[in-house]
Amino acid sequence: MIRKLMLVTALFFTAFTTSFAAEDVYRACSNLVTDYAYHRDQFNAVEFSNLFTENASLTVVSQTWVGRSNIEQRIEGLKTGSSIRHEMSTIRIVPIDDDNATGVSYATIYAAPAGETSVSGFVLMGEYHDEFVRTAEGWKISKRVLVQKYSLER
To answer: 137 in helix, strand or coil?
Structure first.
């Protein structure tokens, strides 16, 4: 009887620990997704680039930047006074193992020229396909690809 009780207790704590760990991965990676949108929209180049690993790649439709410093330079180069907003939804994170996870999140992106406060519609609707890795600095994006799904007819 004691052995059965010990087995049930061990199985319970193993399941609880695994569930808790998966929840931590989900939370950390989801925060990266929302922080990406926030820092991108605010043109916070340093904070934005620090969401990525040193050797990460970022692909936006057909352009790719490799390395944290190149990703930072990309955002610095976009500071034109225009405004942009990423509306993130449907964030799905899948833990692979203790140090890796993948994810897909949906984005609707709006942009307006400098000084404008109205838009005629979204610029792009798409999916971010992500690879996340746990580093000494915490969870980071190691690869992010924006796949365009819809755009407005012009």
So the answer is: coil
